Model the fold of this input.
Amino acid sequence: MIGKLVCFLLLAAAMLASDIPKFKEACPRDRFVYGAMLAPLLYLGLVFITAKPWPNLDTIFDLLHGPAKQIIHWLDPANS
Done:
């Protein structure tokens, strides 16, 4: 667990060191989008570090697989 924590902290520090200068110059909308993308990253980092059986990206993609297939079926001209 300590190794995973160190790895995550190193990656997060490198990402923030690269993004902070750009973040200071960004408009409020860009800052909001950055925060919205950072929230799932932090959640997935927590799941990675703690190794909890919480929902992961695979679970979300599996939930969306059925509706996506239905939409493709509706839009496919060969099925009309």
Observations:
- Helices lie at 2-25, 28-50, 57-75.
- The mean pLDDT is 87.
